[in-house]
C-alpha cells in the first residue's frame, strides 16, 4: 500500500470553536504501525476518521501515494468505501444474528468473492486469530477478547491495505489487553498491513508502534520511534505524558534558590551559558540512584539529600516517594529498598539523564550536547 500523507490537515466543527485538528503534517509509510497517542480530546480519533473518510477536511489535503483522497481547495473527496481501508471501532460492531464465521466473511460476501476463495480466506484468517473453533457460535456467546478477534478477522479477511483501529482494546481487562497487544504485533508481522492505531494508553503505543505521533489540543507534539519519544521528548507535555511513574519535574524558573529546584538551577548554571532561559528539568524515576553517603555520588552528577516519604511495592518493582525541602520525586527500584519511611537518603543521577526544557516547555537540545561533552556517561 502506498504512503499515507497528511499536509496541513485541519478540522473545525464551526467558526466559533477551536480546531479539533490544526496544521497536521504526518506521513505514514507502507507497512508501518503508527500509533496516534494523546489524551482525550487531542484530535487523534478525528485524525483517524479523516484518513478513513468519515470526516471531511476543513483545509489541507490527504494523499494515498500520488492519489488525492481529500482536498478542500481542489474539491476532491473520495468516499470511505473507495479508499481500500479497514476500520475496527472501539465497540466491536458485530452482527448479533450472524455466526462468527458469517461475521468474518461478511465483507467478502458484499464483494461477491467466489465461495471457494471466500472459504479459504476465512479459514486462514480465523486460524491465524485462533477463533476457528468458535465458527458456529454467536457474538453473545464469546468473551470480549474473543469478540475483538472476530472484529479484527472480519477486517483482515478482505485484506485491506490499511487497517485503522480506534482504541480497540479499551473495553478489555488487563490480561486480555496484554494478549491482544501480542496478537496485534503478530498480525502486523504476518500480514504486513499498514496499521494506524488510536490510543490514550502510552504502554500500548510503546509496545506496539514502529512510530508514535503524540498529539495534544489538535496539534502534533512529536513524531518518532518509541525510544525517541521516551528518551528525547520534544517538550514537557510529551515528557510528562509518556512514562509511568511520570517523569519528575523541577521548576527552575520560579525557584527562590531553595530546595532541589534551586540546587538544580545552580548545577545547570555551572555548565550552561544561559541558565535564565531554562524553565525546568525532568528526571525519569528509573534514572535516580541512591547512595549511602555523598562520597558514593559519582563526580559531576546531579545529587541531593532527600527524605523517604513513601515506599510503594508494585510486585516486580518498588516506587520510592522522596521529598527535598518540598520538591517531590519518584524513584523506581527493581530490588526491595533497604531504607525506611522517614529516613534521609542521598540521591544522584547521571548528567545525560537530565531532560532540560526552556521557559516555553521546549527541549533545550544545546544542553544535551554540553552535558555529554563535559561529563561522560557513567
From TrEMBL:
It is a peripheral membrane protein. Residues 4-242 form the ABC transporter domain. One of its GO terms (molecular function) is ABC-type transporter activity. Pfam families: ABC_tran (PF00005), TOBE_2 (PF08402). The keyword Transmembrane helix does not apply. GO terms for cellular component: ATP-binding cassette (ABC) transporter complex, substrate-binding subunit-containing. InterPro entries: AAA+_ATPase (IPR003593), ABC_transporter-like_ATP-bd (IPR003439), ABC_transporter-like_CS (IPR017871), ABC_transpr_MalK/UgpC-like (IPR047641), Mo/tungstate-bd_C_term_dom (IPR008995), P-loop_NTPase (IPR027417), Transp-assoc_OB_typ2 (IPR013611). It comes from the Bacteria. Belongs to the ABC transporter superfamily. This is ATPase component of ABC-type sugar transporter. It comes from Microvirga lotononidis.
